[in-house]
Every structure is written in C-alpha cells, then in structure tokens.
Amino acid sequence: MELFIITGTSRGIGLAFAERALRQKDTVVFGIARTNSSINPNFNFLKTDLVAEQQVNEIRFPIDEGFTKIVLVNNAGMLGDVKHLGEMENQSIAKTIAVNLTAPTLLLNRFLHFYASSKAQKIVINISSGAGRRAIPSWSVYCATKAALDMVSETAQQEQIEKGTNTRIFSVAPGVVDTAMQEEIRSVEQANFSQVNRFHELKKKGELASTEKVAENLFQLATHPEKFSEVILDIRTF
C-alpha cells in the first residue's frame, strides 16, 4: 500500500496528480485543500486553508500501518499581487509567503519528524517554478518564495543524507501549465506586468502543458526517484 499526501487537490496539477495516483492499485491519497473535488473512495479530504498557520499545524498525517511508500507533494501555490514592490498590498505579500513557503516548510518539517521511524520509502516533491530561478518584474514575492523553496529542499536533502535515511526530496519546476494561475496571469494589465503578452502568445499557440501530462511526469518521479540524482529539477527535461 502506498500513501500520497498532496496539497492543492481541488484543481489543477494537484487534482490531476491525485487522480493519477489513484489509478494504481493499493493507493491511498490524502488531499489538503479548501474544497474537495474528488469522490474516489480511496481519497481522504482534509479541509485546510494553507494561509492560516494554525490550520496547517493542526493537520494530522495518517499513521504508518505498513505503507511501502509515503509521498508528500507540496503543490499548492499562489501568484499574489502582480505589481512592482512599492505598489503591492502587504496582506497579499504575507499570504503569498504563507502559501508558497511557510505551509510547505511546516508540512515538510512535520512529515520528516512524523515518519522518521517508518521503514517505508519516503519521497517529497515540492512544486517550485522556473520563476524561482530568474527574476521576473512584478513577480518579486512569487519568485522569492519559489527560490526559497528550492533552497529548503536542497538543504533538507543534505540533512537526510547526513542522517543516512532513504528519504528523497525534490523541488520541481513544472513548466508553463494550463491552469487557473495562467488565466490569472493573462488577466493582468500590461501596465502592471510588462511580460503579459508572452503568456497570451503561449496560450494562443497551444504551448501550455496539460495538467494531466505534468501529473504523469511527477508520478514517474515518485515511482522511480532513483533515476534522478539532483534535487532541483525542471519537468521539461524529463
């Protein structure tokens, strides 16, 4: 039996990944989100607003009852205000940091502690972004949180190597995916986001990856982590 714990399962990559995992036998998925979009009997929904630190701290992971593999997928994320610094709302900055960095770091910390004595193969997949690896005007907080998530992932993996565990931690940029976030980006006025036309062109030319394709690639990473030696990955190179 394999266990998948996935954030942001109400839509997009998170929902597609949950559905892909549940297509294999002997799999249980715990989905963490504000709303539930799955009716699979092996799907367990944990209603949580990742903006609220108290709610994140109240999440209880399933007890290991002999799982062969336990996978944490920190998928949930938000773009936040698409504006220059100095024009953003402080509340938006705080919420973006909470969802993109604080919540996944808290969950990673809890995961590593809770399953420390488990004999199961343990895998963590943090969904990062190419935006965390280059500066994009008007995306400062989004870029910063994704860059920080990369570093948290790399550091945590080094710590697990020092401990001699069988835990693998990855930080994966999924590419430009056809999700609600892309719709949000395209709705921004050029006065606030100088690169918005590029995203209109990507949609127009059909160059956005499907959530199903991204989910399949992520599932293959979870299935064969030994094929990947690096922590920081880009799904477009799989």
TrEMBL record:
GO terms for molecular function: sepiapterin reductase (NADP+) activity. Keywords: Cytoplasm, NADP, Oxidoreductase. GO terms for biological process: tetrahydrobiopterin biosynthetic process. GO terms for cellular component: cytoplasm. The keyword Lipid metabolism does not apply. Gene3D superfamilies: NAD(P)-binding Rossmann-like Domain. The keyword Oxidoreductase applies. It holds the Pfam family adh_short. Its main location: cytoplasm. It is found in: Cytoplasm. This is Benzil reductase ((S)-benzoin forming). It comes from Williamwhitmania taraxaci.
